[in-house]
Amino acid sequence: RPRDSGFTILPHHIMYRCYMHLLTKQYSTYMSPEPPVSSLDAASIGFIIIIDRRKDKWSSVKASLSRIAGAFPGNLQLVLVLRPSRFFQRAIADLGIKLHKDDFKMKVPIVMLNSLSDLHGYVDKGQLTRELGGSLEYCHSQWIHHRTAIENFAMTVKTTAQMLQKFGTDLAETELPNDVQCTKDLLTAHTDKHNNLKDELKLALRQGTTLFGCIKEQAAKSENHELNPDEMENQTTVERLLAQLDETENAFEQFWCKHHLKLEQCLQLRHFEQDFREVKVSLDSLMESLTSLSDIGDCVARVEHLLKELKTLEEKAQVIEKAQLHALHGDQLIQSNHYAVDSIRPKCVELRRVCDDFSNESKKKTDVLTKSLQIHMGIDKWCESGIYLLASQAVDKCQSQEGAESALTDIENFLDSVEKNQLTELRNLHNQYNNISLHVLKALKRLEDVQEMFEKRHVSLKRLSAKQTRPIQPVAPRPESSPKRPSLKNTPRTTGNQQRELEVFITKLNYAEDDELNRSHDEFFCLCRHIMTELIETERLYVEELQSIMEGYFAEMNNAELSHLLPPSLENKRDVLFGNLPEIYEFHNRTFLMELENCAEKPELVGTCFLKRKEELQVYEKYCQNKPRSEVLWRQCGDSLFFQECQKKLDHKLSLDAYLLKPVQRITKYQLMLKEMLKCSKGQGMAELEEALATMLDIIKSVNDSMHQIAITGFEGNLSELGKLLMQGSFNVWTDHKKGHSKVKDLARFKPMQRHLFLYDKMLLFCKKREETSDGHEKTPSYSFKHSLKMSAVGITENVKGDSKKFEVWYNGREEVYIIQAPSMDVKNMWVSEIRKVLTGQLEACRAALYVLTFSQMHQKSLDNFIFFIMTMILFTFQGEVLKYNRLTDQSPDLSLAELENFTSNKMKVALKVWESIARWILQRVLHQILNMILFHFMCICAVTFKLNRLCLPEQNMVYSEILRLYAKILGS
What we know:
An eight-stranded mixed β-sheet has the order 5-9-8-7-6-12-11-10. The chain contains 31 helices and twelve strands. The protein starts with 5 loop residues before the first strand and ends with a helix. Helix content is 65%, strand content 8%. It folds into six domains: 6-136, no CATH class; 148-277, Up-down Bundle (Methane Monooxygenase Hydroxylase, Chain G, domain 1), CATH 1.20.58; 278-364, Methane Monooxygenase Hydroxylase, Chain G, domain 1; 531-700, Dbl homology (DH) domain (Dbl Homology Domain, Chain A); 711-836, Pleckstrin-homology domain (PH domain)/Phosphotyrosine-binding domain (PTB) (PH-domain like); 860-972, no CATH class. Helix 3 links the parallel strand 2 (47-52) and strand 3 (76-82). The chain is an alpha/beta fold. One of its GO terms (cellular component) is cytoplasm. This is MCF.2 cell line derived transforming sequence-like 2.
């Protein structure tokens, strides 16, 4: 009678229908190979089935045995049957068991029991329920509830384990993506699924914990209560399932941590590879730009430009720093035990190699260009020193044999002491870098040109020193024609006076040797042509750069394929960014470049070319006025992908803002070229060159003035209606306002005001200069409008006591006086001269209008001539007084209004009375229109006779007002 064996009891109180339903519907589940309610030990020992059929028939016993024999899967040890208690059914059962025992096909014995006492002989009472006379506490509904819950929990554990196993299999079989976005998506998807499974695990654990608590609740009801074997078995089963679930969770988390780490490292790797490709492309582009700077320049300006480009390239090479940081990031990945170390390490090595190559190549090019700059500067210094030496040799000294020999010695010493070092350095540079032979040859050509000039002079001086057959009359040179030759270590550039000395020398040498003049002319023509060649080459380069901007940026803004890259701040603002650059490009491409090319063989015509196009060159003024707005817009959108894409297509080393500065640089370059041309020009075309230089300087001044004009704020009128801006500058200003004739000072200032003055044709503006800083950029001036004076009512006093740099500007007959202190005498003289020109121009305009009116009416009728004759005779009557007035104004040009009124009333009284008498006589005999004509004639003759150009407009107006007052009096009478 083993106490540990499992018992399956089929009680007699279960109805046959329910019993049949159990056997047919749930028997297979109830009798599972390892029922959850049985322990593994009980299943291994075996089961004993007790069938209680005391109140049933034999047919029920037979059916139960048949079902058990065919469906019970466990290790069955014994079948105990409580036979029917009724006599007849018991007899049938005994007979039936004997007859049908073999039909049941059971391998275990079947024991037929008559009573519970017989059953107690096989099974202990402690393992039997009270229905079978035992003491086992058993609640069938509780057993069903626990069994159902345990089976559901077991199914949940099994399902969860299968899900985890399937998810783990999917993770193990997943291939890692090759791009950043797919890796991000995969990491997000796996993380979401892991979180969902984590929630399922938590739910299963909560279910098992709740079930375990319910089973233990029975034992907690009373202190003496002990769990029955079924309850203990259920508790053990739940604990085993919870432990299994916990182990599954731990194993899953360990696997997930490894997989998640691998995905994160994969994402880091993809980011690293993507950044590596971008940085590598930028580095390659940077290296190409650096490699393209293979030129070493053929002149100082070109070398300086190349050095500036190289410096700009180095300053904008942030990609080098980015590459170094990226390589450092790769080292950090390697140190963190990344799984792709073999892929990361070579990329870090490659980045560092390219960075080192760029740094070494940049340093190498910097050294080469620096050396080239030194050599070219030395060549320029040598050439200029040589030309200066030739120009400084006095003609009168060369006319004697001793003087010629001395000059010859100077030339020979100069050639021997200087040229060898420069030539050696050039040849060393050529041997070091074979691809720069063309530029070295150009530099050598310049040396050879100057050397040829020395050789020609050398030959001429030898002839002069060798034979003095023809007497030569000494000619005294001009005072400035014999300057001392400066030291070769610090030789200045050839000035205008030195150039004239050179021309004097060559001219006077003509009567000594006729062919020397032609040779010297060839030398200067060679230099002029060299400058002309440089002008044309730089002009072609300038046009090419403008064309690249127009095609690569300006036109691309209308390209639909790149429209999505345009920043919103640039919408409909193309004209603001580029200004009138298309107009500048069309002018240079179609007109100016071709005209300069036509002057290639005739450099003396270049001045005419500039003069011919001086109106077209005014387009730069509009461009420069728009430049501040363009720079503000560029700072807002310069970093957009659109400009980066355009720059990449054009393969430009510099960004667009550097190219938008080219027109400003170009317009200032022309005057430098013209100055160089003037230094080596003489004779034909020199006057045009001087005029062209003055024109270009005037254009630059106009551009500069216009840049200040657009910064004026607070002026309510229209600046364009004030005429041309003539002058602008900052001054110290004192004010002296006088009321009537009392001459009381109004708010007299001892401390001057700082004012910026703008002189226009029609008005003089007083502004206060302010400097504003925006977005961390350099300060930009602005001018707040304070006061204005109409030029038609302005007078000027050139000299003020106490300071030679001061002058006065007075208004309305000195009611308002402004004492202006210039920063220098030159500035004062320019302003005084310009104001005089404005006042004189206004008077001449008035005089011209009167002349036109007078002479047009004089020829209409003969009566006009008669009246004009009469008026002329009348004016002769007080011509002496007029002359006195002229002498008075010559001595004191600043007459007051009271003095002028006194002169008008006293000195003109006689003439006006005569004029009044004749006018009365004319009114009685001629039409009213004739009187009007007389008035105009009189005003015109007054303008001529009184020399009104010596008076300011307020004084003129006073004279005319007096005439009109008298005329009105005549009409009234």
